[in-house]
Design a protein that fits this description.
The protein is α+β, with helices and mostly antiparallel strands and about 260 residues long. The chain has four helices and 16 strands.
Length: about 260
């Protein structure tokens, strides 16, 4: 169990989803993960925080009707100074699309993308330190960037957040682990032309479940889609799914469970 405490820079600390139908989306994730919801900061429009056993685990916001953005789970990476981090992102070839701006007393945020277009958030915590639980079913447990190749991409994230980038030596896979103070916090996976043409490089959030096969079936029953059927992987039993609005995420029953 991870309590909500200040995270070192670069540590994934929150995941958030912007959708068109916030009420229907809440019902989907309430049934899938057992989440409850409370109001969150409203600076960017209607927004709720998801709770699991009283602990905040994720956020869901409502897009304006005229905004037709890709619906996707977005990880937020911790920063001591969101403004300084945003300027570094620009200097390293990335883009700052939103902010930095204050989210009430919760903290300061920016929505950015790396040089390949993969979107992520930057979070400077004040009252809200981010995800208060990680590990039990229904919580986000990992974030992975699917990109063209890991070398140049890893250099960008190292320059911005100071990660230690640890390549995995393999003739078959282009994979690297991002570490903060020696601890693994996220990963990069280079898949070249295997990236979906309609999505490009993107971050993927993994949510823990008690039973991957059952959770995948429930996703379909609730109007979502199974994009990659349950299978065994190094991390555990995995399935790639999408919610009814198209947000893609991975279900995982971790091997350690």
């Amino acid at each position: 169990m991870t309590e909500a405490t200040p995270r070192p820079p670069g540590t994934p600390c929150w995941v958030s989803l912007m959708v068109h139908g916030i009420d229907a989306t809440q019902e989907f994730y309430r049934t899938l993960f057992g989440w409850e919801f409370i109001p969150g900061p409203q600076q960017l429009g209607p927004y709720v925080r998801a709770l699991l056993d009283g602990r905040e685990v994720a956020g869901i916001g409502q897009l304006p009707p005229d905004r037709h953005l890709r619906i996707a789970w977005t990880p937020y990476l911790a920063a001591d100074d969101a403004d300084e981090t945003a300027e570094t992102i620009r200097c390293c070839g990335g883009t700052v699309a939103v902010g930095p701006l204050d989210a009430g007393e919760a903290g300061r945020l920016a929505i950015c993308s790396d040089p390949t277009g993969a979107v992520f958030g930057v979070w400077q915590a004040e009252a809200h330190h981010g995800t208060a639980a990680a590990g039990p079913p229904g919580t986000p447990v990992w974030n992975e960037l699917l990109t063209y190749e890991t070398s140049a991409t890893g250099k960008f994230y190292r320059m911005v957040f100071g990660y230690e980038v640890e390549p995995v030596v393999s003739a078959e896979h282009d994979y690297a682990t991002l570490r903060v103070a020696g601890e693994p916090v996220a990963s990069l996976h280079g898949v070249g032309n295997a990236l979906p043409r309609d999505r490009g490089p993107h971050w993927m959030t993994y949510f823990e479940v008690a039973d991957t096969d059952e959770a995948a079936r429930l996703v379909q029953e609730l109007g979502g889609h199974v994009l990659r059927a349950p299978r065994e992987g190094q991390a555990g039993r995995l399935a790639v799914v999408a919610d009814p609005e198209g947000a893609v995420f991975t279900l995982v029953r971790s091997a350690a469970r």
